[in-house]
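A brief tutorial aside. Many learners find it easier to grasp structure tokens once they have seen a single protein encoded end to end. The record that follows does exactly this for NAD(P)-binding protein. Read the sequence first, then the structure, and try to relate runs of similar tokens to stretches of the chain.
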Amino acid sequence: MGLNSSKPFDPDTLPELSGKVVVVTGGAAGVGFAVVQQLARRGAKVYVAARDQPRADKAIERLRASGLGPGNGNIEYLYLDLDDPRTAKKSAEDFMQKEERLDVLGELNVCRRDAVISMLTLLPLLKRTANEPNSDVRIVIVSTDGFDAIRHPVQFKSTADFNLEYRSSIFPWPSLMRYCYSKYIVMLYASEQQRRLDDEGVPIIVMTTHPGAINSATLSPYIASIARAFVNAVFTTPTRGAYSTVFAAASDEVRAEPRMYRGAYVRPPNQCTLPPERVRDRKKAQELWALTENVLSELGVTV
């Protein structure tokens, strides 16, 4: 359900972000690259959080060469391995030794429990920043409309429930269904994180965003070569696909209407919508959260 109408959007109209610190996971390519670029151009200090440092360093070189100049922000590398929660926690602890604040956590290319790992490990610093006068702290997680494909009963009782294979003949394109399932999980995580922050009285705004139909490397495995010409003609670029996330991360409109944007799903380029009830189901979200905490505990990770 749309809470407002989508309007033309130009990232150059975003406010000045000097003094703000941003972490973007998945910022070395595609939509994430464009998000880093736009936020840095507005003056933010942006960390590209990734496991592969050589790849991230190349992306940072390209970003710096693409138009960052006097008055623009800085772009730095942050080692973050979301495949190993223990390493992810250590990376977050190292980051908190370097920085005294974190204004925006932008999560791209996340799936399954990845989103909650980085959220939980960096949450103490996000909360600390949110308690400062005139702060404006946000968590922005990229999803897609793919979550809407998950209409079958779902439970979160064991780790196997994180890893549904969709091998049954009733599910076409198993890899695509697994992708959709990961986005369903991301939506549940986001809704539960917002509820928990609201219950604590912490003024952090959590949003999910939809980049639109993007012609990117993520899409390639799901289309046949015969369809590529159509995709190239119809689908949008990663630069435009970043608009909804950049808007959610930095627009003054979000802080001006916090009640509307808390837990919202921002469709391209800037339409605030209410996610469907099934991805706001508190019982299901709490079940997912508890399972995630149990998995982390078994790995010796406390957050």
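Self-check: The mean pLDDT is 87. If you spotted this yourself, you are ready for the next section.
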